């Protein structure tokens, strides 16, 4: 019977271990839920859910006696795989089985208490700590990326405080009722709002009304809005003021009691939300579309228009251009979208099929169009437009070169590649060399060499080296005698059709007359006036300095062509780059820059010209000094003065002016970001109140000033300070936590 009790005790210990594992998993889930949400109730819910899931997975209550016996037999050799006998009644056993049962029970009494049940407690503990660490990391990330509240101490209602210490036993008037009504512009569709929160955010153009009621006698209730003073009118026992919100800024209220004591409020923000312009998007349309004459010349236009407060109108502005040059004509049309435009909607899907034929466009005409949208803003709507798209119908009339039956020469210029294109093709050939066969590689390299030669010869025309492009005179060996002239010279078959530069009067600029050649000793009298192509030094479009550069480029092109012909493009590339560099220099030096000015010189007196009289002329010498002014100078002085006040210096009247000047400096920036500067402006404003002139408040205002001021501009120079990324981050963190 003792052995049966031992098995039951071991089974209970095994179940207890499993329950412990479930608790560890549940604690991990609860820790993750609490740390991530900072909610105690979510933490409890996480524990309950985690515990329920773990219990369903492990099911400790279903641990059977057979599982216990199997584990004991496998891990306790003394049991002799007979521990199951302990679970059976002795009356059911034979004498031998009873003897074995007694033996096993005796052996287990000393061993089973030390037997440890199977468990995964280390794994469960690791999972628990892992989930808790994930919760801590999530909490840190949420705090890091959570937008920092710039005005945590800003009150949500208007509160007055005495400007100076009030030494009287009379009751201080209190604000009994505050009502702020915001009337948004009608076109926005936003309902009017009544609130007590003085920090107002509304659409530009909204009308804001303040109604203040006091317990006690007050006078001179005024609003100070960025330096502008507005007096509240007294009506029905309260003080009222209405203003239209145009720009962002700050405001405060002040009043006087019956004894003349002044009371002021904190600074409150006015944020004007600008009405955004409509957003126009055109989907699935290329910027440029081209059509042939026989194509279906239609453009499907799918447009999406959206606006924050509603769309009033949207349409297509199309311009058709006809003709070219000085005879070009433009026709502008406004095209409506298909269907009825639903005004006031915030999003619209508009469609239109533009038919170029219906726009009466002919071949060669061009269409420029864009979509324009207007919103509901009153009185002047916001207008926006999409990008401009182009549609062109290709012209069917082209200038083709034709050869008549009597003309046997095509003198149209051949196509030739630029030096930059040759470089690109050569680099591509070098890159593709491993994948090309030797025959294809040599063929392409030779072709590039031919293109290099064509480009060299083309540039050679500018140098007058046109003889390289001349074809050899046509000859027929069997009938040579028939083409000989009386002087014994050979006649060129292409003489009637080619452009010969070797003739004495190629342009027919003067009448033909007899002259003497060099052998006769008399020089042609028109030599200095004619454009002579016979002399390469004369036949050029450039000046001599450019000719030298061009000759260098042609010489380098020879070397580039040589290595391409030798199937060594990698050696040709350096020469090609040198040639390209020289060509670019030639192009830049050949440009003409005209500086247009509007200066008209005064008329010169004829009696003063060329007299050399310079008595009335005096030299002009101008000296000007510029004084460097540091940005936010008053604010930086205020920081230094606050340091002295923290150490115990007395507050003076000059300090009041200094802090007021600092506030004026920051107010200019605060119009753009009112929320960011509200706290520091309020702190400077509170220094006017004697109750706020404490060391703690001085330190708070100084810290706020330091947080919004930009860094001082450093003078250029060599710094001796060592700073790396780690140190910089460390210093920044110290500044945040200061």
Automatic annotation (TrEMBL):
Keyword Transmembrane helix on entry: yes
Region listing for Disordered, in residue ranges: 469-492, 509-538
Keywords: Membrane, Transmembrane, Transmembrane helix
Provenance organism: Flagellimonas aequoris
Protein name: Tryptophan-rich sensory protein
Transmembrane domains' residue ranges: 16-34, 40-58, 123-142
Biased composition (Basic and acidic residues): 509-534
């Amino acid at each position: 019977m003792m052995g049966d009790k031992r098995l039951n005790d071991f089974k209970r210990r095994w179940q207890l271990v499993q329950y412990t594992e479930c608790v560890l998993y549940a604690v991990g889930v609860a820790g993750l839920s609490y740390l991530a949400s900072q909610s105690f109730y979510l933490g409890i819910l996480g524990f309950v859910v985690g515990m329920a899931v773990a219990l369903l997975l492990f099911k400790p209550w279903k641990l059977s006696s057979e599982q216990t016996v199997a584990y004991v037999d496998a891990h306790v050799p003394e049991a002799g795989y007979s521990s199951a006998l302990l679970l059976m009644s002795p009356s059911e056993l034979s004498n031998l089985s009873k003897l074995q049962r007694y033996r096993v029970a005796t052996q287990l009494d000393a061993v089973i208490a030390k037997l440890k049940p199977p468990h995964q407690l280390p794994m469960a503990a690791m999972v628990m700590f892992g989930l808790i660490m994930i919760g801590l990391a999530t909490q840190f990330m949420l705090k890091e990326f959570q937008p920092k509240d710039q005005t945590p101490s800003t009150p949500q209602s208007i509160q007055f405080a005495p400007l100076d210490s009030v030494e009287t036993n009379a009751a201080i008037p209190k604000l009994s009722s505050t009502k702020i009504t915001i009337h948004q512009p009608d076109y926005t569709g936003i309902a009017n709002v009544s609130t007590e929160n003085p920090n107002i955010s509304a659409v530009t153009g909204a009308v804001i009304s303040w109604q203040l009621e006091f317990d006690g006698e007050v006078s001179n209730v005024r609003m100070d809005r960025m330096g502008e003073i507005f007096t509240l009118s007294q009506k029905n026992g309260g003080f009222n003021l209405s203003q239209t919100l145009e720009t962002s800024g700050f405001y405060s209220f002040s009043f006087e009691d019956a004894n003349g004591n002044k009371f002021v409020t904190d600074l409150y923000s006015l944020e004007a939300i600008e009405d955004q312009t409509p957003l126009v998007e055109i989907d699935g349309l290329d910027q440029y579309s081209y059509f042939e004459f026989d194509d279906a010349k239609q453009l499907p236009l799918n447009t999406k228009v959206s606006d924050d407060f509603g769309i009033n109108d949207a349409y297509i502005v199309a311009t058709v251009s006809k003709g070219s040059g000085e005879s070009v004509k433009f026709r502008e049309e406004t095209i409506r979208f298909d269907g009825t435009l639903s005004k006031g909607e915030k999003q619209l899907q508009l469609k239109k099929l533009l038919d170029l034929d219906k726009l009466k466009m002919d071949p060669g005409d061009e269409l420029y169009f864009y979509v324009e949208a207007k919103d509901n803003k009153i009185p002047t709507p916001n207008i926006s437009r999409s990008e401009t798209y182009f549609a062109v119908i290709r012209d069917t009339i082209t200038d083709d070169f034709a050869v008549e039956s009597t003309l046997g020469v095509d003198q149209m210029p051949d196509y030739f590649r630029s030096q930059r294109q040759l470089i690109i093709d050569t680099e591509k050939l070098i890159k593709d060399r491993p994948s090309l066969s030797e025959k294809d590689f040599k063929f392409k390299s030779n072709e590039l060499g031919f293109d290099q030669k064509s480009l060299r010869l083309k540039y050679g025309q500018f140098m007058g080296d046109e003889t390289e492009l001349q074809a050899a005179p046509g000859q027929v060996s069997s009938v040579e005698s028939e083409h000989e002239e009386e002087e014994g010279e050979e006649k060129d078959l292409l003489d009637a059709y080619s452009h010969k530069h070797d003739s004495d009067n190629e342009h027919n600029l003067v009448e033909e007359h007899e002259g003497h050649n060099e052998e006769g000793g008399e020089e042609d009298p028109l030599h200095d006036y004619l454009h002579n192509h016979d002399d390469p030094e004369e036949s050029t479009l450039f000046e001599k300095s450019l000719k030298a550069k061009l000759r260098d480029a042609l010489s380098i092109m020879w070397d580039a062509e040589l290595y391409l012909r030798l199937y060594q493009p990698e050696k040709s590339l350096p020469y090609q780059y040198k040639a390209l560099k020289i060509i670019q220099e030639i192009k830049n030096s050949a440009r003409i820059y005209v500086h247009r000015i509007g200066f008209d010189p005064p008329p010169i007196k004829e009696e003063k010209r060329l007299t050399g009289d310079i008595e009335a002329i005096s030299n002009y010498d101008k000296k000007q000094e510029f004084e460097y002014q540091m940005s936010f100078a008053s604010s930086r002085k205020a920081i230094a003065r606050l340091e002295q006040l923290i150490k115990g210096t007395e507050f003076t009247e000059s300090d009041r002016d200094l802090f007021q000047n600092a506030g004026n400096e920051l107010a200019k920036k605060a119009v753009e970001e009112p929320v960011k500067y509200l706290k520091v402006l309020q702190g400077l404003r509170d220094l006017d109140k004697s109750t706020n002139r404490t060391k703690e408040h001085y330190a708070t205002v100084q810290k706020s000033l330091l947080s919004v001021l930009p860094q001082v501009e450093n003078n250029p120079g060599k710094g001796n300070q060592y700073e790396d990324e780690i140190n910089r981050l460390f210093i920044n963190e110290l500044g945040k936590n200061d």
